[in-house]
Request: fold
Amino acid sequence: MHEMGIASSVLEAVDKERRRYPGQRAAKIGLRIGEYAGIDCDSLRFCFEALVKDTDLEPLELDLEWCRLEDGRRGDELEIAYLELEEAHETEKVET
Amino acid sequence: MNRVAIEKKVLNENDQVAGRLRERLADFGTLSLNFIGSPGAGKTAFLEGTLERLAAHTRTAVLTGDLQTENDAIRLRRYGYPVRQITTGGACHLDARMVQTHLEDLLKVGLELLLIENVGNLVCPTSYDLGEDAKVVVLSVCEGEDKPLKYPGIFRKAELMLLTKIDLLPHVPFKPELALENARKINPEIEIIETSYTTGAGFDRWLEWLSRRAEQKRALLKSPAEAAQVG
Reply:
């Protein structure tokens, strides 16, 4: 169940990154997961949603890109690709 | 919507700690191996067999990970080498910070060999770099031949596979040639040694492998010309 630790690391990165953009909120985080990375995507999604629930990051979408060797990828990817930000409502603004 | 490229590893913090650890181990030419296998695969027994056969002067240390108990450390300490038990509480893998914390004082003595027995698990430990030179996957003949296909991540990343408990082959329906074929399907480069703690089979080959890898590591401490000769 190391997906909980993985999800937690992702959210720490999101929190750190969003603070660089005052007035905006994190809307979507994109990850690349290799087929040999040892990650169960369903489990990761479950853990991610559980950690986001009832926090100031909610709602935050998780976009998982599955990377396979036969598609010319390395297969061991466990990477944060991007973060999408949108204009925050007054109550959602993060203190930086 | 504003998309910002991040392009960094999820376990960036762990990888940074592991990288620093790797550098410190390299300063002494320490060969560091991370043993990963299911609970009951025979990791601890294999390490016992190894410690029993190491030349007495070898500066070796062992870290052994489990959710609870000091049992494995107690078993391994009988051979006279420093052994640290890492009890993770509930975590299903070791991470680089745990290794760093338990290794701190041992790093100063200039180890030749560091053996890390990960928590029994074929999935989670695969993702965490511990600063090792190589991952060693341990599979026993009491498991299924299709383990490499079911858990490809670790077989893909491992440099060496140990097939343990081969003395039990007459008593179990395990087909070793099929397990080896499956492992090579996932990782054509993987080296494989068949072993038995009970009979001592395979330990000569293992010690040769260990000696070759340790020499390669030490060669990096020498001049580039000398290192090239060792290959």
